[in-house]
Amino acid sequence: DQQVKQNSPSLSVQEGRISILNCDYTNSMFDYFLWYKKYPAEGPTFLISISSIKDKNEDGRFTVFLNKSAKHLSLHIVPSQPGDSAVYFCAASTGKLIFGQGTTLQVKP
Amino acid sequence: NAGVTQTPKFQVLKTGQSMTLQCAQDMNHEYMSWYRQDPGMGLRLIHYSVGAGITDQGEVPNGYNVSRSTTEDFPLRLLSAAPSQTSVYFCASTNRVLTGELFFGEGSRLTVL
Fold first, then answer.
1. What's the pLDDT tens digit per position in B80-113?
2. Beta strands A56-59 and B4-7: pairing type?
Protein backbone atom coordinates (compact mmCIF):
# COMPACT_ATOMS: atom_id res chain seq x y z
CA ASP A 1 0.00 0.00 0.00
CA GLN A 2 1.97 2.95 -1.35
CA GLN A 3 0.85 6.04 0.54
CA VAL A 4 3.06 8.39 -1.47
CA LYS A 5 3.44 7.85 -5.21
CA GLN A 6 5.59 9.38 -7.91
CA ASN A 7 4.28 7.94 -11.14
CA SER A 8 6.96 9.35 -13.44
CA PRO A 9 10.29 7.51 -13.04
CA SER A 10 12.14 10.05 -15.16
CA LEU A 11 11.91 13.53 -16.66
CA SER A 12 14.16 15.27 -19.15
CA VAL A 13 14.08 19.04 -19.74
CA GLN A 14 16.19 21.62 -21.48
CA GLU A 15 18.32 24.03 -19.48
CA GLY A 16 16.42 27.22 -18.75
CA ARG A 17 12.99 25.62 -19.07
CA ILE A 18 10.63 24.67 -16.28
CA SER A 19 10.81 21.26 -14.59
CA ILE A 20 7.60 19.98 -13.00
CA LEU A 21 7.76 16.94 -10.76
CA ASN A 22 4.54 15.40 -9.48
CA CYS A 23 3.52 13.40 -6.44
CA ASP A 24 0.24 11.90 -5.23
CA TYR A 25 -0.68 10.73 -1.75
CA THR A 26 -3.51 8.80 -0.17
CA ASN A 27 -3.40 9.64 3.55
CA SER A 28 -5.24 12.87 4.41
CA MET A 29 -3.57 12.89 7.87
CA PHE A 30 -0.18 13.97 6.55
CA ASP A 31 0.92 17.24 8.25
CA TYR A 32 3.86 18.22 6.08
CA PHE A 33 5.04 17.47 2.59
CA LEU A 34 8.65 17.67 1.53
CA TRP A 35 10.93 17.29 -1.44
CA TYR A 36 14.39 15.80 -1.19
CA LYS A 37 17.14 15.78 -3.77
CA LYS A 38 19.65 12.96 -4.15
CA TYR A 39 22.87 12.80 -6.12
CA PRO A 40 24.56 9.44 -6.87
CA ALA A 41 26.57 7.97 -3.99
CA GLU A 42 25.24 10.60 -1.57
CA GLY A 43 22.45 10.70 0.95
CA PRO A 44 19.25 12.62 0.19
CA THR A 45 19.21 16.29 1.16
CA PHE A 46 16.20 18.35 2.12
CA LEU A 47 15.07 20.79 -0.56
CA ILE A 48 11.74 22.41 0.31
CA SER A 49 8.63 21.68 2.33
CA ILE A 50 5.03 22.80 2.71
CA SER A 51 2.59 22.58 5.57
CA SER A 52 -0.77 20.94 4.94
CA ILE A 53 -2.48 24.26 5.76
CA LYS A 54 -0.80 26.05 2.87
CA ASP A 55 -1.06 25.63 -0.89
CA LYS A 56 2.22 27.15 -2.05
CA ASN A 57 5.74 27.63 -0.77
CA GLU A 58 8.55 29.26 -2.69
CA ASP A 59 12.31 29.22 -2.18
CA GLY A 60 14.33 30.80 -4.96
CA ARG A 61 13.97 28.72 -8.12
CA PHE A 62 11.93 26.05 -6.30
CA THR A 63 8.19 26.23 -5.66
CA VAL A 64 6.04 23.51 -4.16
CA PHE A 65 2.29 23.47 -4.75
CA LEU A 66 -0.19 21.49 -2.68
CA ASN A 67 -3.69 20.57 -3.85
CA LYS A 68 -5.35 18.90 -0.86
CA SER A 69 -8.63 18.13 -2.61
CA ALA A 70 -6.75 16.17 -5.26
CA LYS A 71 -4.15 14.85 -2.78
CA HIS A 72 -1.46 16.05 -5.13
CA LEU A 73 1.71 18.06 -4.80
CA SER A 74 4.19 19.27 -7.34
CA LEU A 75 7.65 20.79 -7.43
CA HIS A 76 8.42 23.47 -9.99
CA ILE A 77 12.02 24.36 -10.81
CA VAL A 78 12.43 27.55 -12.83
CA PRO A 79 14.76 27.96 -14.57
CA SER A 80 16.19 24.46 -14.64
CA GLN A 81 19.97 24.13 -14.52
CA PRO A 82 22.24 21.16 -15.34
CA GLY A 83 23.22 20.98 -11.66
CA ASP A 84 19.59 20.18 -10.86
CA SER A 85 20.02 16.77 -12.48
CA ALA A 86 19.36 14.32 -9.66
CA VAL A 87 16.74 12.01 -8.21
CA TYR A 88 13.91 13.87 -6.50
CA PHE A 89 11.87 12.23 -3.79
CA CYS A 90 8.63 13.58 -2.45
CA ALA A 91 7.80 12.67 1.13
CA ALA A 92 4.97 13.14 3.60
CA SER A 93 5.07 13.30 7.36
CA THR A 94 2.83 12.34 10.26
CA GLY A 95 5.78 12.28 12.64
CA LYS A 96 7.51 9.64 10.56
CA LEU A 97 8.47 10.30 6.99
CA ILE A 98 7.10 8.25 4.09
CA PHE A 99 8.78 8.61 0.70
CA GLY A 100 7.70 8.17 -2.88
CA GLN A 101 9.61 6.11 -5.43
CA GLY A 102 11.60 9.03 -6.83
CA THR A 103 11.85 10.78 -10.19
CA THR A 104 15.15 11.11 -12.02
CA LEU A 105 15.47 14.58 -13.50
CA GLN A 106 17.91 15.21 -16.32
CA VAL A 107 18.51 18.81 -17.33
CA LYS A 108 20.21 19.01 -20.71
CA PRO A 109 22.57 21.92 -21.49
CA ASN B 1 30.78 18.89 12.19
CA ALA B 2 30.48 15.27 11.03
CA GLY B 3 26.65 15.15 10.91
CA VAL B 4 25.39 11.59 10.36
CA THR B 5 28.11 8.97 9.93
CA GLN B 6 27.44 5.49 8.62
CA THR B 7 29.83 2.54 8.61
CA PRO B 8 30.68 0.50 6.68
CA LYS B 9 30.10 2.12 3.30
CA PHE B 10 30.22 -1.21 1.49
CA GLN B 11 29.68 -4.77 2.71
CA VAL B 12 29.27 -8.17 1.08
CA LEU B 13 27.66 -10.94 3.08
CA LYS B 14 26.74 -14.54 2.50
CA THR B 15 23.19 -15.71 3.09
CA GLY B 16 22.66 -16.46 6.76
CA GLN B 17 25.46 -14.25 8.06
CA SER B 18 24.73 -11.51 10.56
CA MET B 19 26.09 -8.00 10.69
CA THR B 20 25.49 -4.56 12.14
CA LEU B 21 25.32 -1.30 10.25
CA GLN B 22 26.51 1.52 12.45
CA CYS B 23 25.01 5.01 12.56
CA ALA B 24 26.18 7.89 14.69
CA GLN B 25 25.14 11.55 14.76
CA ASP B 26 26.77 14.45 16.59
CA MET B 27 23.90 16.95 16.34
CA ASN B 28 22.13 15.87 19.54
CA HIS B 29 19.07 14.84 17.56
CA GLU B 30 16.42 12.88 19.40
CA TYR B 31 14.86 11.27 16.32
CA MET B 32 16.81 8.72 14.25
CA SER B 33 15.69 6.35 11.55
CA TRP B 34 16.82 3.76 9.01
CA TYR B 35 15.69 3.57 5.40
CA ARG B 36 16.50 1.23 2.57
CA GLN B 37 16.56 2.34 -1.04
CA ASP B 38 15.71 -0.10 -3.80
CA PRO B 39 15.17 0.56 -7.54
CA GLY B 40 11.56 1.52 -8.23
CA MET B 41 10.68 1.40 -4.53
CA GLY B 42 12.09 4.68 -3.30
CA LEU B 43 13.10 5.01 0.33
CA ARG B 44 11.28 2.71 2.73
CA LEU B 45 11.34 3.17 6.49
CA ILE B 46 12.71 0.17 8.40
CA HIS B 47 12.83 1.30 12.05
CA TYR B 48 12.89 4.58 13.87
CA SER B 49 13.55 5.96 17.33
CA VAL B 50 12.22 9.10 19.03
CA GLY B 51 14.82 8.99 21.78
CA ALA B 52 17.19 6.81 23.79
CA GLY B 53 15.49 3.59 24.87
CA ILE B 54 12.56 4.00 22.45
CA THR B 55 12.28 2.27 19.07
CA ASP B 56 9.43 1.45 16.73
CA GLN B 57 8.81 -0.33 13.45
CA GLY B 58 8.49 1.33 10.09
CA GLU B 59 7.15 0.02 6.80
CA VAL B 60 9.58 -2.91 6.29
CA PRO B 61 10.93 -4.04 9.69
CA ASN B 62 11.14 -7.81 9.14
CA GLY B 63 14.65 -9.23 9.32
CA TYR B 64 16.08 -6.18 11.10
CA ASN B 65 16.66 -5.28 14.74
CA VAL B 66 17.52 -1.92 16.28
CA SER B 67 18.36 -0.53 19.69
CA ARG B 68 18.96 2.98 20.99
CA SER B 69 21.09 2.98 24.11
CA THR B 70 22.46 6.50 23.56
CA THR B 71 21.22 9.64 21.79
CA GLU B 72 24.15 9.48 19.37
CA ASP B 73 24.01 5.88 18.10
CA PHE B 74 21.35 3.86 16.30
CA PRO B 75 22.75 0.55 14.96
CA LEU B 76 20.80 -1.65 12.55
CA ARG B 77 21.29 -5.40 12.91
CA LEU B 78 20.67 -8.05 10.30
CA LEU B 79 20.28 -11.29 12.20
CA SER B 80 20.38 -13.73 9.26
CA ALA B 81 21.03 -11.97 5.97
CA ALA B 82 18.96 -12.84 2.90
CA PRO B 83 19.47 -11.83 -0.77
CA SER B 84 16.28 -9.74 -0.48
CA GLN B 85 18.17 -7.48 1.94
CA THR B 86 20.60 -6.43 -0.78
CA SER B 87 20.07 -2.68 -0.82
CA VAL B 88 21.46 0.72 0.01
CA TYR B 89 20.76 1.67 3.60
CA PHE B 90 20.46 5.23 4.86
CA CYS B 91 20.44 6.46 8.41
CA ALA B 92 18.84 9.81 9.17
CA SER B 93 18.27 12.06 12.16
CA THR B 94 16.42 15.23 13.07
CA ASN B 95 15.10 17.38 15.86
CA ARG B 96 12.26 18.50 13.59
CA VAL B 97 10.15 15.36 13.64
CA LEU B 98 6.85 17.02 12.76
CA THR B 99 8.15 18.88 9.73
CA GLY B 100 10.16 15.90 8.50
CA GLU B 101 13.43 17.65 7.73
CA LEU B 102 15.84 14.75 8.02
CA PHE B 103 19.62 14.80 7.82
CA PHE B 104 20.89 11.71 6.03
CA GLY B 105 24.15 9.83 6.12
CA GLU B 106 25.95 8.91 2.90
CA GLY B 107 24.58 5.38 2.84
CA SER B 108 25.82 1.82 3.24
CA ARG B 109 25.66 -0.49 0.24
CA LEU B 110 25.00 -4.08 1.26
CA THR B 111 25.14 -7.09 -1.04
CA VAL B 112 23.93 -10.48 0.17
CA LEU B 113 25.04 -13.42 -1.96
1. 999 999 999 999 999 987 787 999 999 999 999 9
2. unpaired
